[in-house]
Amino acid sequence: MTPTLSGRWQTRLLLLGTVGFVVTWFFAAYFQAITFEDVFHVPFVLLVYVAVLGLGWDVLYNVMQHSRWDSDWPPIYQFGAGVAEALLLFALIRIGLVIGVPENLPFWMFFVHYGAVWFWTFVMTQGPLRLLFPQWRFRGGQFGRHPATRE
Amino acid sequence: MQIHLTWQEPDSDVHGEWTGDLPLTLGRTTKPAIDHPQVTREHARLDWVDGQLILTDLESRNGTFVADEQVDRAELGASGTFRLGPVVVEVQALLPEPEETVIAPEPPELIETIAAPEAVEEPGPVDTSGTVEEPDAAPEPVEEPAEEPAEAPSADAGTLIEGEMTDSFATVEEAEPIQAAKRVDEPPRLVVVWKNEETGAEGQSMEKVPVALGSRDDSAVRLADARVSRLHATLMVEDGQIVLRDEQSSNGTFIGSEQVSVAQLGTAGQFTIRPFLITARIEGVEAESAEVREPATQLEEEASIFFDDERGTLAPAPPAEESGFPPALFQQDMVSVSALQATGVPIEEKAYVAIGGGLGSFIWVDYLRVYGVPTEGICVVGLEAKPHGRYERLCINSQIPYHERLRSDSASRPDCLWGWPGYAVVEAWNGITGRGNLKDGLRAAWKIFAEPTFTSTYTPVSGVVFDSIDKEARRIGWEQMRQHGRVKAIRKTDDGRYAVAYTVPGDTTDQRHRIVIARYVHVAVGYPGIRLLPDLQAYRIETGDLERVVNAYEEHQHVYDTLAREGGLVLIRGWGIVASRIIQRLFELRRDKGADVQILHLTRSIVAEGHRYRNAQRKVDNNWEFQPFNWPKAAWGGDLRFLLEESSPEERGRLLQAWGGTTTADREDWSDLIAQGRREGWYHIREGEVDRVERNAEGTLTTVIRGKKTLRAETRLDTNYIIDCTGLQSGIESHPLLRDLVAHHGLGRNVQGRLDVADDFEIRGMRNQQARMYASGVATLGGPYAPVDSFLGLQYAAQRSVNALVYHRAPRLQHLGALTSFGQWRRWARGVAP
Question: Could you state, in order of their start, the residue ranges of all structural domains in chain B?
Fold first, then answer.
């Protein structure tokens, strides 16, 4: 994939809002069921954090991408970006900067939820999105049609 | 020992001069300092040993060169010329000998003309541009006679240097004495074009004045014919005018029918030395009239080998024109449909017509079909039985058989507009499920995950790609839509459509010539042909030898068959993906057949650094420049695509320059092979500009090269074969249909001289009321999109034009929303017609 900055933002928000939301719902219900505590909202809060922090991360990725000759973003970079974002977010949780998420959130809970969201959004960018939006890959990850040429 | 040094940076006025004692270390941080970025801090050393200068490379980054050959150590004699990276250095030992001793250069009768009349004394190295390199030595007038050969000890310096050369193929034919200093203005150069009116042989060269014309082998312009005197005439420039002087030749020099002894030609002119017609012009002066047309330039513009799609082969000439069709009415600006009907030519009407019938047409029609147009609404006119016919032939000729891999991305599937699952995903899946090779499958999966940083880029196997296209062709009903024919002309009609006139080869009935009228037309005719390098084309015309000089895209199996039996030396020209594959093929002859095949790879100049764009730089290794595909990946659908589209035509020209160029894919097997070849001594890189190619006494080939930056001596390279890997002809002039289209409708050209298309690939100037005409493929290169001749690029062009037709409400086309798109993909996956 060779995204543009706005393509990154659009794709991130759309995928977190759809695939990410479904996956998060599943884990929210699961965590609620096994802990007998009121934690249903926690994964959703994390999802919002991933989305909002990600808008900033994307700016950084975009700069890095431009220093590559092909100006592309291979899958392995997507993986590396996912790891970096996870580390920062978990650190923020531990120092209590993520409002609405307990500081002592078990790592495994964070890991399985975050990992599943990352995995399914990654899979979507590797192909299935193109089945729904054939123009997406030519528009640097932006949705919508090519503009009409007025001549 | 005192020496005098001068140096000159490439393509600039920066130069310097120094006089001092040996030993001396030369580099960026030494004294004197040669401050050029490609010169290493301590680049090379000069010593005086046993009465001669010894040059030693100090493991510099960009190398030290003598006679364009990279050296670790070289003996220069008493003076010499060498190169530190790109910087040319001339050195001269200041021997206590009389300076006037001038060795008479060969040929004696040329002394007069060699002694340049314009020897200008310059006040020294001070450069008016302000970029002066002026180290220790104070500026002083140069005393040496500027244009005369250097003094005695250096006369054989060239020979000594050449004697050091390890390159066993290179034999020195002629080593001109090196000039001690070149502190004169460059003499003007003349472009001389000649044509043998009897044989049709032609040639061109650019020469410094005075230019000697004659039948001698070493004439600047050699006119090989018994009627031409050894030194027949000379050309000089006086007061900005070319002066032609007959050198008392036996058979005379003529302007028109008038014999002349001395004549002014102006800045450009034409004269005859029978049987040659010669034109000369001062470099930079445009050829004026149609008569002063340069054959060599023409060779560059026009294809030398044409695709004969009727026979599925390559032909040396374009298909012959037939008279009487298209009808005379096609001379008009706008064709009347009723008048067309009156001609009696069979006429068919369709909504959509695709012209070409190759991959470009196939991909466009695939889009139309998926977007809802039935087969009845579409007509494809072309000569290829299969959409990949020509592409496949070019692959096979350039040594990519069905089991070898193409230079293409996994997700670039010409048979699937969604590009999913990509070829790599399929390969991985087949490997894992046991239908294919597990190792290949896992490798494919790893590659598409980690490419191109941690592994080389995945590329699909050619046979798999062709099979997938065949399958999709069956699904969309390609055969029902295809009309076998060669399109002759396209015209606007008075009812807001286009008339496409075509001929059906092999049809002997009165149905042979036909016309199809359509509102929406797509032109994708591909590369017009193959172009040989001008000197190789000149060789072929002159000798008629099509066996030893071949283009990689031609059928040239005989080369490998002979090499497998007899071994031999092959000269490769070109540094692209085709050259990579040909070298691999030659290596396979060594490995599998034990044949003694040697490769000499010629380059105009050593590539020290890759192209730069923004903060990125392309990788270079062993003179090869690498990128996974022929453009940076973001040119297909990333930020570079948007950037190019938004740029002005001039800016587009600059961007294409920065991103393009000759590159090959960084495949491990190829780079290992080059390293191995250099180590084992069967692969050599040679720098030089080709002057001409000749047949030698043994019946093999001699390529005469001239050193570009150091010695002006010629070097002759004797090889058994020359394989031209420089590519295909991409100009539109060579294609009769496009040439007619542009000329008849007065269409504009893009910055690279090809079809001017809008961002949605509509051909500007062809709109006719509601009718729209689009193009794709290499004919549009230089416009809003760079990778126009790739699978994915053709898909992009098709998507843009079909998308525009949806906005335009063209019949039966429906926008592909998310759900319809997914539904259509499912039909594709199940192999059901759209």
Answer: 2-93, 114-178+530-627+666-745, 189-282
